[in-house]
Write the structure tokens for this entry.
Amino acid sequence: MLVELNKKDIISLLMGSKPNYSVMDKIPKELGHYVGGFVDDWKWNYISENVPYTEEYLYNLYVMCKNSWK
């Protein structure tokens, strides 16, 4: 299947994913953070379309998060 995604679509994909602990340190701190202790969860920060990252970079982050659970 071939799908065209714009930056807003890619950001939505990314924010709908949760990275495994093993790759959390590879995600820029301004995009999200780990909440440890009792909660033990990943939280995405608000990501606007004006972030200085390319569509390709954001998509690769999404793929990394998705594949981190394999």
